[in-house]
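Lay summary. Proteins are chains of building blocks that fold into shapes, and those shapes determine what they do. In this project we predict the shape from the chain. Here is one chain we studied, written as its sequence of building blocks.
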Amino acid sequence: MTTLHTFSCLFFFCSLLSASSIIAKVQHHNFVIQETPVKRLCKTRNAITVNGMFPGPTLEVNDGDTLEVKVLNRARYNITIHWHGVRQMRTGWADGPEFVTQCPIRPGKSYTYRFTIQGQEGTLWWHAHSSWLRATVYGALIIHPALGSSFPFPKPDRQTALVLGEWWNADPVDVINQATRTGAAPNISDAYTINGQPGDLYNCSIKETVVVPVKPGETSLLRVINAALNQPLFFTVANHKLTVVGADASYLKPFTTKVLMLGPGQTTDVLLTADQPPKRYYIAARAYQSAQNAPFDNTTTTAILHYRNTSKTSPPIKPSLPAFNDTNTVTSFSRKFKSLRNVVVPKTIDENLFFTIGLGLDNCPKNFPKNRCQGLNGTRFTASMNNVSFVLPSNFSLLQAHSNGIPGVFTTDFPAKPPVQFDYTGNNISRGLFQPVKGTKLYKLKYGTRVQIVLQDTNIVTSENHPIHLHGYDFYIVAEGFGNFNPKKDTSKFNLVDPPLRNTVAVPVNGWAVIRFVADNPGVWLMHCHLDVHIKWGLGMAFLVENGVGELETLEAAPHDLPVC
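And here is the predicted shape, written in a compact code that computers can read:
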């Protein structure tokens, strides 16, 4: 009897392994990075694209699938590709940020990203992680439930990815290079886009406006991605309710809203039922701008929700969008986010970290002419976490230096708290705090460490809503608030039952957010503001997570085709 039972269990286990190996697929894709003529706003320029497509191809996988994407660089710029939100368990070499987990793919060279989707469902995306190339090098990454599984809501009749972006008439690399030379803020974008098209409200754009077809009564799953370089965006569909069901490839308790706010890097999945009179309705996005007196692109991008059998010439119904500085709407929206089910949040904390985030001003170096110091009052704009402005290496990637024991590339003395405590969100911050130190400082974590980070916005130069993205991890957002974080008062506000699981947190303007995660993925993982101008200025840091015990807690070996610097 025992032998028969043991055989049955073994047979069942082997059957499961066999079934999972059949169900899980290995997908192979080729990405050719190339210059492609793209016409927008009446003008044509050569844009960097993947396979000549703008936006790039949408990748659709099932949970459990493995992706192998060979990237061949035929453009004139160095490039890397980041798989935004993918956990990359033990596969940090495939994460993609330039000089963090790899050296860039040089023109004429190639690199194959290999990784497996594990325990993630929903909407993620991929994008370039070099200079400002992600302005045009990006696309959706759709993760369907594993075969045999289903959504935790009724299956929608159709699914549509809506990727929000920013467009410059100039080459975005030239835009950021000019700002780096002058020390000033970069020129703002000329348009926002939905799936690469600006929409009806811009010049020379009506014919190419994106159209989303629907049938009366059917329900669509809209996968909304903010791929804009530097701008949080409001999103709405005229006269329709949006039921939020997921964000950053994690399911949420459904709630209904008329408007979304997505920081750059964030994704939101919503259900829309076509329950309005059969007409045409604008899908629209415009800026949420929280930094006072900072210039921004104050235009609106549109697509069209088109009911079947409706005349294509009938004017679309216009939506109502919040004012550009409507922080109350943002706060009301973000506070509705809760995980679909109760979750296991780290209760005992091993590393209690406090990171200030914000801008700064570098004094003009004595050997610089005035035209290189065009920031405020003859300075150069900068940014930092805990008064450290992050500097990327150039001869090795951080992960290579860590794995190969190469000295002199980084230090592990990133501060656990600000070097000086002050009234972070006050109006009279000492000018002595405006200039951070520069460094390539990492914070070391032992495998399995339970981490809490308070992310505190500051009013240095100006306060702002900062979308902070952590590579290689999801984290629970246990609380958000305004003003200075007060552990005596604010700890009682923590949601340790069903907080949302995200990979990018929109830290409130003049406020704070608290996140928790377990350091269970060895490697070097970048944490940075996803406003690309801010990461260029140094608003970032990196965690060095040490290997644990055994193969399953150890970073995989570097692939043979890893680019060299």
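What the prediction tells us: The helical segments are 2-23, 172-182, 327-334, 398-404, 487-490, 532-537.
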